[in-house]
Here is the input.
Amino acid sequence: MLTLYGFPVSNYYNKVKLALLEKNAPFSEQFVHPKSVDAAGMAASPLGKIPFISTLQGTLCESQAIVDYLELAYPQPPLLPADPFAAAKVRELTTYIDLHVELVARELYAQAFFGGTVSEAAQARVRRQLEKNIAGLKSLIKFAPYAAGDTFTQADCAAFASLPLVGMATKAIYAEDLLLSGGVDYKPYIKMISERPSAQKVLADRKAATAKP
Here is the structure.
């Protein structure tokens, strides 16, 4: 059985967890905070990043590599289209969300969520980059009704886990949700995905984790 390491507040942890739940793959969870990864964890994830997983074959880190592994190890139900080009478009959107939207917004999290400070210069730079990248996201994301089209895919695991964080962070820093301002009306989509049993489990576990003293 697989073991998923990390903690339920992490969006990348929840990206993988959502894929596991959608595939009905048997797995257990092991709490690991990224600031307290031990030697065994560093062997599994050399940068000390979460999530990572253990399998009968060994360990694996990086959320997208894990999700791609799950697609091959647990092919039903599929989270990628059978058509090679359509599958590549799902991966394109997933990569865009992870690298060009969430990772850019992540620089704001210290101030938006954790009581830290982000310099005004950094805030301005991040805003310029996000506004550019969100325009690109608008051209790629479909909400028809799912992120990449008419079926639930890997892109939904990324979008559901990360878009609300980006919206909250930009609202906290700029008093404006840059996704909504950029024409990416993600909130009805998030509400729809939230009705799935897998998403309800992810949300409930995240809420329980944030409520712990």
Observations:
- Residues 2-73 form a domain with the Glutaredoxin fold (CATH 3.40.30.10).
- Residues 22 and 198 are 6 Å apart (CA to CA).
- The first helix runs from residue 11 to 22.
